[in-house]
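Retro notes, item 3 of 5
We never archived the inputs for the glutamine complex last cycle. Fixing that now. Sequence and ligand:
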Amino acid sequence: MERKYIFVTGGVVSSLGKGISTSSIGALLRARGYQVTAVKIDPYINVDAGTMRPYEHGEVFVTGDGAETDLDIGTYERFLDINLGRGNNITTGQVYQTVIEKERRGKYLSETVQVIPHVTDEIKRRIRKAGQEANAELILVEVGGTVGDIESLPFLEAIRQMRFEEGGDNTLYLHVTLLPYLGTSEEFKTKPTQHSVATLRGVGIQPDGIILRSKSPVPEDAKRKISLFTNVEARNVFNSYDADFVYAVPEILEQQGMGRFIERRLELERVTPELRAWQEAVRVLRQPDQEAIIGIVGKYVAMPDAYLSLMEALKHAGIANHAEVKLEWIDAENLAEGHVSGLNELDGILVPGGFGIRGIEGKVIAARHAREQKIPYLGICLGMQVAVIEYARNIAGLDGANSTEFDPYTPFPVIDLMPEQLEVEDLGGTMRLGNWPMQISPGSLLKRLYQSAPKNGNMVQERHRHRYEVNPDYVDALKTAGLVISGITPGMKGRGAGLVEAIELPDHPFYLGLQSHPEFSSRLMRPSAPFRGFIQAALLRKQRQAERGQTVADDLDVPAPGQGKF
Ligand code: GLN
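Structure as it came back at the time:
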């Protein structure tokens, strides 16, 4: 099969939203029925994103096969509705690791090993392999960073060579740039884009199309000017202006003829895309019937990108319930005993995943408050672990219970490292990562939630990323105290068998903790089951409260308007 490649580069500044542009193009191609995959190139030297700070780089996205990747991989999965894997995120670190290993094993015979051709060959090999593995007809390749960076040069050289090798009809170059607006002169400035395209041409790549990122729609004359200076036909200069919702971007690009342009350029058949699901989602986002306020008790509350998949999963769950989900970011460190009244304003409390001791006691307080006040609670990974710690301390009588991650000397290590994990020393190699099956107990809340989700008997798969587990030595004590273990890792013996995957409380409207991260596999058209149920519970709580408020007001002995004395 002939595969075709769409290369996306970026210019002027970073954090342009290139990932959204790439994903939106992917969505337009998927809506035309193509088999598509997407590759993100990250020119940094880290082998993967697992070792990087989330508050600098945004979340670490985990794929089904257990790779720790750049968050753009998550955006691709959500927009293209496909599962990606390790091979879809290429970094400089991986490329050099392979090249150096090969050199050490004598694979290059006696050659001098150089950036061109050895490093560029390895880059091309990885791009092609991603296409082959997905059996994709169309492969989107996004080069991270900004054209002009030293680090991205070998990648640009590799994609330049690919046009030569794959042919003009099988390769397309798109350049995404920022078009700044100058308030003083009230105009869009095209110069940075002109310079950026000149730099790109300097490394031998003439873009076929340009996507201008701007605050508001760009007038035609600015597009024409860019066309003139860049040798890109004016009709191939697109504008991705700031949209109210990212899910509106595919449609914005389609309306400007993006799909048709790709069809023309890559000699594809002309197809009318099926964009109804996108349109419907955007409609609900713009005009929701109701709203729920969800408090997220976390550590990186100033950097929402650190929780990107979580926010998207909440959005998907909101859309499924025709509701807007409003987020309230609560810094766990500020949540002290006695200062929890703000939590009562919330329709649901979510404690997300996390590492390290910062804010832990605040998260324990949030879990307790949700339990006692019967506020819907969803604990993800660390959020489940703190719920277990809270239950152990306050209900099971295990005073001072903790995770050994936070207190190695705790008298009751209810969350602990498992022997398999203790043996591994390499950072990044110590975690339970990627898809693991979960066996669900009949009659549980979890069972009801996953009722309509795809599953195999009582088994579902969710992605994981953690080191610590509920300590099997304390499971009996917790159960005796009333905690319900509604999901476990299946198997009789061997790796992970019997580990706690989910906990819940029987006498609570919605109290659920999951060791996995279901947010990673949530999709616009297939929202994650626990998230969907959580939002539904939050909306129900709100409704009930409103009804109760109504009753109280009705019962109050006050005259109706206009009937009083004053
Ligand atoms: N820090 C905890 C662990 O390693 C939780 C991890 C997470 O929430 N992703 O087990």
